[in-house]
Design a protein that fits this description.
single chain; alpha+beta; Beta-Lactamase; Hypothetical protein af1432; 3 domains; 7-stranded antiparallel sheet; two-stranded antiparallel ribbon; elongated
Length: 568
């Protein structure tokens, strides 16, 4: 019985006091919970978006638009604190207005003082949450600049201004939200603004302040990234200056090759047919190509300066020594002639001219023969000098000069010590007998080594992930599709397409540059003819060359097919 009454009592108790677990929540509480869940999800999405934003302008617009979205703000703006000058200032960077979407805003700067809402927050680090920006508490230093409202026929009511602070607690910017709408889709006017807006809640202030702190970190990271990129850009420019200082004859070459290569890569992006259709370079890849092109000759700093700046087959100092040698040879011949005359006169000291011998006496003829032989020897020496000067030019050497050079190589002279020496050394003969250009095989090898020096140098730089191919692109700009290029003898499939783009740009500029004393600048049409020959022999990519010519990529340098190429 006791057991039964106990059971009954429990049942009655359960009826009178149902378990709390079966009591349903109120609908408004459920709605509030759902909204907060949605808000948390939005905040997570915002965090991810802030982390992936690339450029500063896009980042600031994202911060403002997302802050407006979660607070039903009609308008807003973002300021950044600038301490670069002696006087700190606020930079008005971005602004948005949902009710007036067609309005455009220009960036401007204003003094960093506590007289403005944004300035006060930037200086103090304190938030402002105003129900009516036109009706401020007495004694505050700040005030609203109502000229904006008058200019666009607007009415600013509720305002929330928050500092964007980094990890160190420094305010790097200010986020300003305007007109918290009661309904998200309301279009505000000067007439309905007061009745359609409300003050921001403390909870909204906490949420947005947290978002502002996260935004500050993203802004600081972005600014750091920009600083690093500016620093690296400066490094690249300084490196180009070093290259050009080492080789003044190619001044501007790196910049021109970069301009041509970038332009050609952009044209590749526009191709919609053929095997080039799937090839596309994004902005970072184009930047990668540009850096590789600017630095493709950096390895020249490892090439001996004399070889690098050599304009003719002989170095200037060599030619000057040979000039003195020729002068000494001529002076020696003149002295020997005088000595021969003197010796003849000594041997014929009893000689006296008689009236009946006439003007053509044998002794006079003998003396004249010595003068004639001297004149012939001097003429021959002068001819050899002309042959030398002609052979010293860096053009293709014909067969006749080669024969004359071989003859010259056998000529001797008597030095001041009386010893017989060759008029030209074997090294000088080898240099003069270079049949194409002005470099010996050893000198050309030294020049070609600049590609390897470039790669080794660039490989030491800790490139970012999206710039990691810079060394490899620069490494391949002298390779040829048929494997006859240098330094590795790569074939088409092994050469990065970015390097193939640069090869065309590099050759074109080398042909058309007007600032190289050892060659004349070619017209664009003549340069294109040579490039087409290179493509026909499978040296360079024919499809890329066709695009280069068809799209007149060379116009980026101011060149045209019918215009004479001038020094760029």
């Amino acid at each position: 019985m006791r057991k039964s009454r106990c059971k009954k009592s429990h049942v009655e108790k359960a009826i009178r006091h149902p378990p709390t677990m079966i009591v349903f929540e109120k609908p408004e509480f459920l709605n509030e919970s759902a909204e907060r869940t949605e808000l948390i999800e939005k905040l997570l999405d915002i965090g991810a978006a802030l982390s992936s934003a690339q450029d500063l302008s896009g980042l600031l617009n994202l911060i403002l638009s997302k802050s407006r979205e979660i607070t039903y703000s009609d308008a807003g703006s973002v300021y950044l604190v600038d301490h670069t000058d002696k006087k700190s200032k606020l930079l008005f960077k971005v602004a948005q207005n949902g009710s007036k979407p067609r309005l455009s805003f220009k960036e401007f700067a204003l003094p960093l003082t506590d007289k403005s809402l944004a300035g006060y927050v930037a200086i103090t680090g304190q938030s402002l949450n105003l129900s009516d920006a036109y009706d401020l508490p007495p004694g505050v230093p700040y005030q609203l600049d109502t000229s904006f409202d008058r200019d666009i026929n607007y009415r600013t009511c509720s305002v929330m201004v928050l500092p964007m602070q980094n990890r160190q607690g420094d305010t790097i910017g200010v986020l300003q939200l305007i007109n918290r709408k009661t309904k998200a889709d309301t279009v505000l006017t000067a007439e309905n603004a007061w009745e359609s807006t409300q003050q921001y809640s403390e909870w909204e202030e906490r949420i947005v302040r947290s978002l502002a702190s996260q935004a500050a970190i993203s802004i600081e990271r972005n600014q750091l990234q920009e600083s690093i990129e500016h620093l690296f850009e400066g490094f690249v420019k300084a490196s180009v200056q070093v290259i050009e200082a080492r080789d003044p004859c190619t001044y501007g070459h790196s910049e021109r090759v970069a301009a041509l290569t970038v332009r050609l890569s952009e044209e590749v992006n526009a191709v919609s047919t053929g095997w080039l259709r799937p090839v596309y370079f994004n902005n970072r890849q184009v930047q990668e190509i540009r850096y590789a092109a600017l630095l493709h000759d950096f390895g020249k700093i490892g090439v001996p300066e004399a070889v690098l700046t050599k304009q003719k087959k002989l170095y200037p100092a060599q030619l000057e020594i040979i000039r003195h040698r020729f002068a000494l040879a001529q002076r020696t011949m003149e002295m020997e002639c005088v000595q021969s005359k003197y010796q003849y006169l000594l041997e014929h000291s009893a000689y006296r001219k008689h009236q009946d011998e006439g003007p053509e006496c044998s002794h006079c003829q003998q003396i004249e023969q010595l003068d004639t032989r001297l004149a012939e020897a001097k003429t021959r020496l002068a001819d050899y000098w002309e042959v030398l000067i002609e052979a010293n030019e860096p053009h293709i050497l014909a067969e006749e000069p080669l024969v004359q050079l071989r003859e010259l190589s056998r000529q001797t002279y008597r030095d001041i010590d009386g010893s017989i020496k060759p008029l030209l050394t074997s090294e000088e003969i080898v240099q003069l007998m270079v049949q194409r250009g002005n470099l010996t095989p050893e000198e050309r090898s030294a020049i070609e080594s600049h590609v390897t020096h470039t790669y080794e140098f660039l490989s030491q730089i800790p490139w970012t992930k999206d710039l990691k191919n810079v060394p490899g692109i620069a490494y391949g700009h002298h390779e040829k599709l048929d494997g006859t290029g240098y330094p590795r003898g790569l074939k088409q499939a092994e050469i990065p397409i970015q390097a193939q783009l640069m090869t065309i740009a590099d050759i074109y500029d080398a042909l058309t540059a007007g600032d190289r004393p050892y060659k004349r600048a070619l017209r664009t049409d003549a340069a294109m003819k040579i490039l087409r020959q290179e493509a026909a022999h499978n040296k360079i990519n024919a499809d890329l060359l066709e695009l280069f010519e068809h799209r007149q990529v060379f116009s980026v340098l101011g060149h045209g097919l019918d215009a004479k190429v001038e020094s760029a």
